[in-house]
Design brief:
Blueprint (H helix, E strand, L loop, with lengths): L11 H6 L20 H7 L5 H5 L2 H15 L3 E3 L6 H6 L3 E4 L2 E4 L4 H5 L7 H4 L1 H13 L5 E7 L1 H10 L7 H9 L1 H24 L4 E5 L8 H22 L5 E4 L7 H7 L4 E3 L6 H8 L5 E5 L1 H6 L1 H15 L4 E5 L9 H12 L4
Length: 350
């Protein structure tokens, strides 16, 4: 799927995602806009709450651009949140000190209160953020859109927030798979509409975050992770054949291979636990890979960071590769360490 979409694009990130091996890997960081930056914290103080922050195009576009201005990443990722989709469907959403708070969907009964029609229009502030960023980014910097994958978004919707054991959502999926399929189908269609809106307003790449893919056994992984992702990539590929889709099935372990082979994504983002050699031998022959520096190394910096960056580049730069973390930037990360990373990635390999 990778090589068939279009001729290589001039932006380094797009060139790598379309199958070109680059001497210096393009790079960006998940959660590169965030609390580790003092300018972000000052910006965040201007919003009433986090949802308001995400849906304020002036603030969200500035948050998107801040890390690129400071560190020169090869891509900016739109500042938003994966749980804007449940809110647009009609679920109440808030954020507390411990993370997101949602009014839990009460199995099949709760689906009836959700409304798919008009989801993209209700998320139009994100589209305006995209338009503002497109006119402000440097010419060689790509713009990435994103959404949560259906399984991961469903976990928050059913659990009412984060979870340690996912008992509520897994119980529903095991006990009533056809009923749970209704929620997955709704989220799949909403995600297609939302990402289509993002692409139509200017993003050049999209990433699907399946942060809780790794909590499922193989059969359920195929049904709730791979199958919805395949529907999304097929729909986007038909509508926007030149826009690459990056999948991030965090925690999938050995199931990364099935995900790569069956989901239809154009590139795969690796979590921190994926061995470099496994990625090189089993995944990279199929498509470009992205990742997977441990975010703690970015907190530590120094020789440990330098060594890890060198090892990743030495192992994965022989094929199409995008440098990134294995998860998001941690809030306690010193900005100077991100600056050190930028300098390391600008240098040729020995």
């Amino acid at each position: 799927m990778t090589g068939a979409k279009s001729e290589p694009a001039p932006k380094p990130l797009l060139r790598a995602l379309r199958g070109e091996r680059l001497e210096r890997p393009p790079w960006w960081l998940m959660r590169q806009a965030g609390r580790y930056l003092p300018e972000y914290r000052a910006l965040r103080a201007q919003a009433r709450d986090f949802v308001d922050f995400c849906l304020n195009p002036a603030l969200a576009s500035e948050a998107t651009l801040q890390p690129v201005r400071r560190f020169g990443m090869d891509a900016a990722i739109i500042f938003a949140d994966i749980l804007l989709v449940p809110q647009a469907l009609g679920q109440k959403l808030g954020f507390g000190d411990d993370g997101p708070l949602l009014e839990p969907v009460d199995e099949a009964v709760g689906i009836s209160g959700l409304k798919l029609e008009g989801v993209a229009s209700r998320l139009e502030p994100v589209g305006e953020t995209i338009r503002r960023c497109r006119v402000s980014l440097p010419p060689q910097t790509a713009l990435i859109g994103f959404a949560g994958a259906p399984w991961t978004v469903a976990t928050y919707m059913v659990e009412g927030g984060g979870s340690r054991d996912f008992q509520r959502v897994k119980s529903w999926a095991y006990r009533d798979p056809n009923g749970f399929q209704g929620l997955i189908d709704l989220l799949t269609e909403a995600t297609i509409d939302y990402l289509s809106m993002q692409i139509a307003t200017g993003v050049e790449v999209v990433q699907l975050f399946d942060s809780w893919a790794g909590v499922l056994p193989e059969n359920e992984f195929e049904r709730w992770v791979i199958a919805p992702t395949r529907r999304i990539t097929a729909a986007l590929g038909e509508r926007f054949p030149v826009v690459p889709v990056i999948g991030f099935p965090r925690g999938a372990g050995l199931l990364y291979e099935r995900y790569v082979a069956e989901s239809g994504v154009d590139a795969v983002s690796l979590d921190t636990t994926v061995p470099r050699g496994f990625a090189r031998e089993r995944l990279q022959p199929r498509l470009p890979v992205q990742g997977n520096l441990d975010p703690v190394l970015l907190v530590i910096g120094g020789e440990a960071l330098e060594r890890a960056v060198s090892e990743l580049r030495a192992t994965l730069s022989g094929r199409p590769y995008v440098f990134n973390l294995g998860h998001g930037v941690l809030p306690q990360t010193p900005p100077e360490n991100v600056g050190m990373l930028a300098k390391l990635l600008s240098q040729p390999l020995d």
